Amino acid sequence: MKRLIIAAVGLALVVAVLGVHGSPIRAQPVASIALPSPGATKQLYEGCNNISLTFPDGTTSQTVVQTVTPAGSVESLWRHDAALKKWVAFSPAAPAASDLLQVNFLDSVWLCIASGLGTTPPPLGPTATPTPPPPTSTPAPTQADLAVTDLFPQTLPAGPVVAKITNNGPDSLTNANVDLSCQVSTQPYGGGIPSGQGIGGPISVTLNPGQTAEFPAGFSIDISQALSDVTCIITVPFNDPNPGNNNYAEKFPTADVEVADFILQGPAANREVHAVLRSNGPGTLAAVPASLECESRVCPDVGICLIFGPLFQHPPVPLVLHLTPSQTVFIQTPRIFNDNTSRVQTMTCTVVVEFNDPVPNNTYNETPVQ
Fold first, then answer.
1. Which pLDDT does position 301 carry in this prediction?
2. CATH 1.10.10 correct for 255-366
3. 39-88 pLDDT, tens per residue?
4. pTM (2 decimals)?
5. CATH for 144-252, among 2.60.40.10, 2.60.120.10, 1.10.3080.10, 2.60.120.230?
6. Other CB atoms closer than 10 Å to residue 283's CB: what's the count?
7. In what order do the strands lie in the sheet with 108-113?
8. One fold for both 144-252 and 255-366?
9. What 3 state SS string does 1-32 have?
């Protein structure tokens, strides 16, 4: 019987939510909830507020309620279970009759706040059980799977970052008030002091199902100066059936750079060894620092050289990389020799980077170099 009462209250609360959020005039906030990182403190209003939770998986609903101030202001917590096609709820006044006992990271919930908090103490629980309207007269809430699908700087090497957001449906969105929040960690090249910042703000989203649009993320990066680790998340005021794709993370710059080959150039008496560097993407490098470190053995005979030949540790070659995916460049190494009297019997070069290189193929060896 208690579960039936909560279900009836839920239908009425959905109607109340739609009525409150359809009004162009919004009251002053009367409460707030402190969401853990990457979330932030959110203002709450009388009635039911839709928020995206950032608590760890398995957090109890009672814990969520206790993070709301002032204490006792929460009447109920609601979440739509898409798999069961029904609403589940938690009531601080009747926890034994509740069927929403735990929440997960990025769950989209309705948090219902008691009225009259500005003048009178909040009620400890629902004070009445309103009669729900007929199902045919209850408008369906908006449902749209909104996803952050990409992040990229508008210009290189430095420029503002843009977030791509896609509406996977089923409903269309018109001027939906969505919160876009980003966390940026920056590590300067050369061992500088790392830093971090959080940026967030509302964006207005108008998208039909299947459409994608670009929105400014509110910050800039410079890939020629530092490695930036960015995570962005959106919080929506409607039912999002797939909140798992509301966040997106990427490191800038990211590129797989490898030493792919050696080639010999110049006359025999003054032969130069050049290293072939190739970028396999996925990102573009623009004015990004790196270095090439090589060692070699030069002598007339390969057998003697590999055992007794002196090993030359060449000084690093500083690089400033400008590479698009699949592009190659030729880098002159410090090794120059007389091809008439000796050979480079073995040589190893490594491209040393401080940006995000996802594949460990930075080292190349050739014996003999030819």
1. 66
2. no
3. 888 888 888 888 889 999 999 999 999 999 998 888 888 888 877 778 88
4. 0.60
5. 2.60.40.10
6. 24
7. 47-52, 108-113, 74-81, 86-90
8. yes
9. CHHHHHHHHHHHHHHHHHHHHCCCCCCCCCEE
